[in-house]
Amino acid sequence: MAEEMTSRQRVFATLELREPDRVPLFENYFDSRVMQSIFPDVTYPEFAERIGLDTVGPNDILLELDELQWVDRDKGYYLDEWGVTRGLHQEFHSYPVAGPIGSLEDLKNYTPPDPEDPAVLADLESLIERFKGKKAIKCHAHEGYTHASYLRGAENLLMDFVLNPKLAHETIEVAHQYKY
Description:
alpha+beta, two-stranded parallel sheet, about 45% helix, 4-stranded antiparallel β-sheet
């Protein structure tokens, strides 16, 4: 058995195909209600420490309901930073309802969110400050297809690959350029 490792060492050993002292523990997202039911009044970084996560990353499903741009609060619909109408349900992880791109003309007039906005990396920066050298810090990045499917609607985007490839490819390019 390997000797006891730090969280960061454990994750990197696994990624390097070396034997860790135990299987690394990680999770991409935690519903705030789950966190609060286990440890009332805990923040995500505190929660990660208390349950022994080996990785941390922005828990971007934690929404401040009062700060959302509501489309229909009764139905749980709001606009995200991409202009996508999203819906909330019991699990508190939102889902895309409708995208802002219906045509090439819509795409020409569309402006994606600013990737240089300080808020984009604020959570990640605070996690780095708190956990650098202690835990593996991850960032959940989407490839071009995910945001393109939100902007256009997954079914529409898939049909566009056959019926309107220019719109499909240009929508993916908008999402891809944002990320890179």
